[in-house]
Amino acid sequence: MSTTTEAPPKKKLSPRRRAQRIRWAQYALLAVVVLVIALVADWGQIQRTFFRTDLIKNTLTEGVGTALKNTVVYTAGAFVIGLVLGTVLALMRLSSVAPYRWIATVWIEFFRGLPAIIVFIAFGLLPLAFEGLVIPYDPYGTVWIALGLVASAYMAETIRAGIQAVPPGQVEAARSLGMPSGTATRKIVLPQAFRVITPPLTNELILLVKDSSLVYVLGLSATGYELTKYGRQLSSDNVNLTPLVVAGFCYLIITLPLSIIVRRMEARQKKER
């Protein structure tokens, strides 16, 4: 009579071990893709097209400082207008007065629904539509207003969410102490709301930096160029993409520190919770 020995059952992988193997497989796949790209790519052509050293030097010395300054000024002015107007719209959206809510809703939906480039074109053509119209501090004033109006629609919704996040009991307590509604909103609600929404507002600022690249549709002179227009003009003159690459790195100089700030603020808020 023969006896058969059964093979011991295979030990199942734990979820942690399985996830670890999947992660290592992904790392290996990524390494293979990078290696293939490194072997196949024509690095000489890439250098000549995107990283010509002479064009990098020319781009950095011919006027990138002015373009960088213009980008920052355009963004800062639009952010201030968007923040002030967005706060007013958020309060109107939460108002008990129905016409205020209607006006704020129409404004927000209108400017959120329109592409920013159309708003820029419309404001660029305003002097043609209204003879004698002069926008102060042009071209800065035109950019500030056009970009600020678009930003206000998005900021209004962010600010409204922050206001609604403030516990209603705090407002009721202030009112019970005889504080007027407007004073309670200004001294209690808004400071707490802005503390909550600072990271999202910083993200809005980053988006404004990138949206400022649409200024090129206004047909500015060289002194009003922002980074994208400056990079495009030099790329067109030299039939090479190196100036645009340099302009892109200049955007990163602005946006990366802001992104780091956002992450730190979000991490701090999580710890405080």
TrEMBL record:
Boundaries of every ABC transmembrane type-1 domain copy: 68-262
Lineage summary: Bacteria, Bacillati, Actinomycetota, Actinomycetes, Micrococcales
Molecular functions per Gene Ontology: transmembrane transporter activity
Listed transmembrane segments: 21-41, 72-92, 113-134, 244-263
GO biological process, one term: amino acid transport
The protein's name: ABC transmembrane type-1 domain-containing protein
GO cellular component: ATP-binding cassette (ABC) transporter complex
Membrane-related topology note: Multi-pass membrane protein
Claim: Membrane is one of the keywords in the record: yes
Main localization, broad class: membrane
Organism in which the protein naturally occurs: Knoellia locipacati
Entry keyword annotation includes Membrane: yes
Family per record: Belongs to the binding-protein-dependent transport system permease family.
Keywords, comma-separated and alphabetical: Amino-acid transport, Cell membrane, Membrane, Transmembrane, Transmembrane helix, Transport
Subcellular location: Cell membrane
